[in-house]
Amino acid sequence: MRTSLQAGASKMGYLVNNLSLHGQFPDMDSFGRSVREIMAIRSLVISSGLSVYCHRQMLLCNVATDIPLSKAVNCLTHDEKRAFLLWIIQHGPFWDEARCHNSDDWLEAKLDIVTDSAVAEAAFFNLRGINRSLISFSPSDWNYSPIDVNHISDEGESKKTSILNYWEKQQIENALKENPVRIDSWQLLGDAVQAQCSNLTFTDETFAPLTGHPFSENAAVRILFICNTLNKLKACFNEEGQRTAEGHEIYQNFFTGKKENGGRGALFSDSSDSEKKEFSDEMTFRIPGLENKAIFCPWHGKVQTPQFRVHFSWPMRHDEKTYIMYVGPKITKS
């Protein structure tokens, strides 16, 4: 039986600047426009294979005088509010869960202490040679770039770094064109998959079986497509928990073999009875955080060259997590 550790943070790209919410919005219409711009930026970043991290306490930030974000979101449409809250409450990812700087670190910007903020976290990474950028709400006192931050050590030594900051979709588009994200390693593939597939659940060990195998761009593209297809299917359930018309189409196309590869086999399939018997232990995984509970995952997505597989929990239900437990060489090779 394979074991899985707690899910960890994937490679960070951008952090939402929580300091850019400081009670500045004159009305809820301007706040709504800012949220839509932030969501458009997030969608663009995620499609590039990077992540947009927020803070779990962002709901407490003031949008206007005496109006916290938790109340201000009521000005959004039902769908806008749902998508926004799912991100900042449930899906994240959240930089404060695996933060780099400590509460006693002295970091300042504009002569103000910014410790415990996304500005400080991004600065701490940048000072260690790992580029992190910020995304800010607009209008805001933080709509300028770069943002200069000083880190002052216990000995009084000061180190300065500059953080790129974005608040318009066009700015991000230009930045990504100038520095496109290229997936050229298994690590970057894992980061891209987890950034793009927020409807799925991964573990620290999901991509570990790829370690030591030569990187294959064709296999990486296929794995990304497999996971994105499952991610899309996971969102295709109505309020009653039934699969939508789009979900039925995805199932028909990729689980029955009627269209995938011209009808020569499905992208996703169950293992054979003999494989389930012979490789039962290898296809059984422990669920992260529930060490006494295991899940049998014979269903898999196929990569033909090289022979890789993506094993996941099945059947897929609207009220249960869909786990991606294994990405690596074909388990049932004999």
Compute the number of strand runs.
16
Task: Specify the helix fraction band.
Answer: 25-40%
* Bulk shape: globular
Distance between the termini: 18 Å
Strand order, sheet with most strands: 2-1-7-10
Main sheet overview = 4 strands, parallel
Low-confidence stretches: 1-10, 259-264
Cα gyration radius (Å): 22 Å
Primary descriptors:
single chain, 334 residues, alpha+beta, 4-stranded parallel β-sheet, 4-stranded antiparallel β-sheet, 9 helices, globular, disordered N terminus
How would you characterize this protein structure?
The strands form five sheets. Strands 2-1-7-10 form a four-stranded parallel sheet. The chain has a four-stranded antiparallel sheet with strand order 6-5-8-9, covered by helices on one side. It is globular. Helix 1 packs parallel to helix 5 (169-178) and helix 7 (217-234) packs antiparallel against helix 8. It is an alpha+beta fold and 334 residues long. It has helices spanning 28-47, 69-72, 78-91, 118-127, 169-178, 186-196, 217-234, 245-254, 273-278; strands spanning 14-16, 52-53, 62-64, 67-68, 106-109, 112-113, 133-135, 147-152, 158-163, 165-166, 268-269, 284-287, 290-296, 300-303, 308-312, 324-329. The protein contains nine helices and 16 strands.
Structure described in brief:
The chain has about 325 residues and is an alpha+beta fold. It is about 30% helix and about 20% strand. The protein has helices at about 30-45, 70, 80-90, 120-125, 170-180, 185-195, 215-235, 245-255, 275-280; strands at about 15, 50-55, 60-65, 65-70, 105-110, 110-115, 135, 145-150, 160-165, 165, 270, 285, 290-295, 300-305, 310, 325-330.
